[in-house]
Design a protein that fits this description.
By secondary structure, this protein is α+β, with helices and mostly antiparallel strands. It folds into three domains: 1-126 and 742-780, no CATH class; 140-293 and 697-730, no CATH class; 300-691, no CATH class. 30% of the residues lie in helices and 19% in strands. The chain has 18 helices and 22 strands. Strands 5, 8, 12, 13, 14, 17, 18, 19 and 20 form a nine-stranded mixed beta sheet that branches. A three-stranded antiparallel beta sheet has the order 1-22-3. A three-stranded antiparallel beta sheet has the order 2-21-4. Helix 3 packs parallel to helix 5 (233-245), helix 8 (311-324) crosses helix 12 (613-628) and helix 12 crosses helix 14. The longest helix is centred in the first third of the chain and has 43 residues, at 169-211. Residues 99-110 have a biased composition (Polar residues). Residues 31-40 have a biased composition (Low complexity). Residues 87-98 have a biased composition (Basic and acidic residues). Keywords: Membrane, Transmembrane, Transmembrane helix.
């Protein structure tokens, strides 16, 4: 058997690795050809050979035919001796060199020559980077995919924004999070796919740089495995740390053959990892979510609130009847004992305006009340039951819409027709008489679709209408008339007469006739128009003369139960929003309404006027007496702000003429302030509370979103195009199986695994323990 050939590690295409001490620079490596095709790279684990005989001399293979640049390998460093042919020469492509140096027979060579195996096909030329030869050829498929993802990111996010519109805050956030998560995940995955080549190139470059170190070249298998186990920030940080710690990666060690800033490539990879991980969060911050509170009218809870009069309230009102029925006293209920009276408001219903008293916060509390408690204030001002100042903070939740029945008022008026006959300024006893024609009264009742009362459907009885011993200036025909009212000559500029036609016996409310008489000195009404002027001449201080002007109207006022909607805001202010319907009991106004709470029992559900007449009389007279009190004190028939409001004019001398619509508006506002609040006391009634819905919408902040997507696009394209080539012209390598197949030779790995004692069924951690300290280097 021929002597082994010892080849210098500086001139070989192989490599070895050690397990104990590293070899000296003069170490030899094992090399042989096993086929007729050239292998570009290999990891060749070789055992340490036996020492040569004492008398033998190592032979240095310096065959000029050896091509040192055609073979590159990752090889375990070590010394190896093999059998080699006596006369080493370059292998012929058509020949196979056997392990013992003999040439195979011609039939075998012929078979190899005719081998059509894909392993014998010529290697195609590698694609080139269109911008610079210092970079790898771009993976255009990944780049196009990344560009496409960036282009469709905004439309996809817009779809999720549209899905999130008008949802609850939970579902809006869920939809936005899903959209930003999906888009951010896809863009981040695309960025990582493009950035992976940077980490792979830096890892293999680290091995190559460390392999060029003259002293102890290469990396241990454990170090290289840890740096190539995946594309993550932790692995990149390990690679960056290795490049800082290893000597072979220092710029001064490799500046002769590679001066590129590989650490910056790793930093760029880490930047892309950070961007990819942050994309869902960043995109989520660029979608603005706004909320709004909306009223919903389908889900409700039944609630009890103070919207009626209790038995004790009616008892107190009955005790006050003699005071308010006194013809001279003119007593009024003081609102100071209850705080400010509630605000009056109105809403249209057909051609009418219906007036209501606003709900007070006290009415929504279990121990609260309305104004209809009819309690006088004690002299010492102690123990006052103030509805506006409840003692309990629990009640109907804020942020809800409340529906419950309450009393409302509406009125129709007609000017007295044929005033020169139906409005007599003065009788013999200085009484002003106002007569109501039956035709006008029928028209008023017809306007409300009410039946004309039989008590009025008969001729006027002048004996009862005119005061005893009084005579009129002319004859009156009683047949077309139905009512006659006399007003004393008392100097009051506006006077009223009320006649209740229904005291609520039927439970449906109250009906009242209301007459208004206006008497004004024409000196203070320069724009005034009066259908009747008095005969008396008044001499004024400035030498002018004036007379008293007369005007009157006949009105019909209705007090009825209505279902009104009130919003109980979180600020503690109640605001009525609309009329639901004309009814005395709260019922469904929409199909599909459902009670999401418990049904209340033992509480009134319907407004009924059958027992409320004492409270109505007291409250009605309270409102009229407050109207009358707004009159001049020292001179007769002087204008007042109230009487001027009955016309279309303004100012102290602004009265023009009695206007029906103006009087209705003023009178109903007064009744809604001074009458209606007293029809609700401490009595409970069932209503409905509709909790608010908090709906959300999402909106993309377009400019910041476009900027972020453009940056993601630019970072990805840069990562895809400018992947650095490995040092010394080494072809691109990654962490996939094909790169390891190109680097390792199966027979060499098997030999070294046998030397390390690695068996087929050994545990993975044991294999890592036995092979982890083997040192590799990349050999050219």
């Amino acid at each position: 058997m021929p002597n082994p050939v010892i080849r210098s590690s500086d001139a070989t295409d192989g490599a070895g690795f050690w397990q104990d001490d590293p070899p000296t620079p003069s170490s030899a490596i094992f090399s042989h050809h096993t086929s007729t095709y050239s292998r570009r790279s290999s990891i060749r684990p070789l055992p340490v050979p036996p020492a040569p005989a004492p008398n033998s001399t190592p032979e240095i293979d310096a065959s000029p035919g050896t091509d040192r640049s055609s073979v590159e390998s990752i090889a375990p460093v070590g010394i190896s001796a093999v059998a080699s042919p006596p006369d080493y020469r370059d292998p012929d492509p058509t020949e196979e060199i056997s392990h013992n140096g003999t040439q195979p027979n011609s039939s075998a060579s012929s078979a190899i020559e005719k081998d059509e195996s894909p392993f014998n096909q010529p290697i195609a030329s590698s694609p080139q980077n269109p911008f610079s030869s210092a970079y790898e050829a771009p993976n255009w498929a990944l780049i196009v995919l990344h560009v496409g993802l960036c282009l469709i990111a905004y439309p996809v996010l817009m779809i999720f924004v549209l899905i999130a519109k008008d949802r609850t805050i939970f579902w809006t956030r869920f939809a936005v999070s899903c959209g930003c998560g999906v888009v951010g995940f896809c863009l981040g995955l695309s960025l990582l796919g493009l950035a992976r080549a940077f980490l792979e190139a830096a890892t293999w470059a680290t091995l190559i740089h460390q392999s060029r170190l003259p002293e102890a070249p290469g990396l241990t298998l454990r170090e290289f495995a840890a740096a190539s186990q995946g594309t993550s920030a932790l692995v990149a940080a390990r690679v960056l740390l290795n490049r800082i710690m290893f000597q072979g990666t220092a710029r001064k060690q490799r500046k002769a053959y590679d001066s590129r800033p590989w650490s910056l490539y790793v930093v760029y990879f880490l930047l892309l990892v950070l961007l990819a991980a942050s994309l869902p969060f960043i995109l989520g911050r660029l979608v603005e979510i706004s909320t709004r509170i909306t009223n919903q009218h389908t889900d409700y809870r039944e609630v009890a609130l103070k919207g009626d009069l209790s038995a004790i309230d009616l008892t107190r009102a009955t005790e006050l009847l003699p005071v308010f029925e006194h013809p001279i006293l003119g007593w009024t209920l003081s609102h100071y004992e209850h705080g400010q009276p509630p605000q009056a408001f109105s809403y249209p219903w057909g051609t009418d305006m219906v007036y209501f008293a606003e709900t007070t916060p006290s009415q929504l509390l279990p121990d609260g009340s309305g104004f209809g408690v009819f309690v006088h204030t004690p002299k010492n001002h102690t123990n006052i039951d103030v509805p506006g100042t409840p003692t309990s903070s629990s009640g109907i939740d804020a942020g809800t819409t409340i529906r419950y029945p309450r009393w409302g008022a509406r009125m129709h008026c007609r000017k007295v027709p044929n005033a020169e006959r139906n409005l007599i300024p003065k009788s013999s006893l200085n009484v002003t008489y106002l007569f109501a024609p039956r035709e006008t009264m029928v028209d008023l009742f017809t306007s409300f679709s009410l039946q004309f009362p039989k008590i009025l459907d008969k001729p006027l009885n002048l004996t009862t209408a005119i005061k005893p011993n009084d005579t009129l200036p002319f004859e009156i025909d009683p047949n077309p008339l139905t009512l006659g009212v006399g007003f004393n000559d008392n100097g009051v500029s506006h006077s009223y007469y009320s006649s209740p036609l229904s005291m609520g016996e039927d439970g449906g409310g109250f009906v009242s006739l209301e007459f208004v008489l206006v008497r004004l000195n024409t000196e203070f009404t320069p724009e005034g128009k009066f259908p009747v002027l008095g005969n008396d001449i008044i001499s004024n201080a400035d030498g002018t003369e004036s007379r008293i002007g007369y005007d009157a109207a006949l009105c019909l006022e209705l007090f009825e139960p209505w279902i009104v909607e009130t919003y109980n805001s979180s600020t503690g202010i109640t605001t009525s929003t609309r009329i639901i319907n004309k009814a005395s009991t709260t019922t469904d106004s929409l199909s599909g309404e459902s009670n999401i709470g418990t049904t209340i029992s033992g509480v009134k559900r319907q407004l009924n006027s059958s027992a409320l007449w004492p409270a109505y009389v007291v409250a009605h007279q309270n409102s009229v007496n407050k109207l009358v009190k707004d009159n001049s004190r020292d001179a007769p028939y002087m204008p007042s702000p109230l009487v001027v409001s009955y016309s279309t004019g303004v100012g102290a001398n602004g009265f023009t003429e009695l206007a029906e619509r103006a009087f209705i508006q003023t009178r109903l506002q007064m009744d809604a302030t001074n009458l209606l609040p007293y029809l609700a006391g401490t009595g409970d009634i069932v209503g409905r509370s509709y909790p608010d819905s908090v709906l959300s919408t999402a909106r993309i902040l377009t400019v910041p979103m476009v900027v972020v997507l453009v940056l993601v696009l630019a970072f990805g394209v840069l990562a895809g195009i400018f992947v650095p080539k490995l040092p010394l012209g080494v072809p691109r390598r990654d962490f996939e199986l094909y790169s390891w197949v190109a680097a390792f030779h199966g027979d060499e790995v098997t030999t070294e695994m046998q030397r390390a004692g690695v068996e087929r069924n050994m545990e993975l951690r044991e294999i890592e323990k036995r092979l982890g300290n083997m040192k590799f280097r990349y050999v050219f």
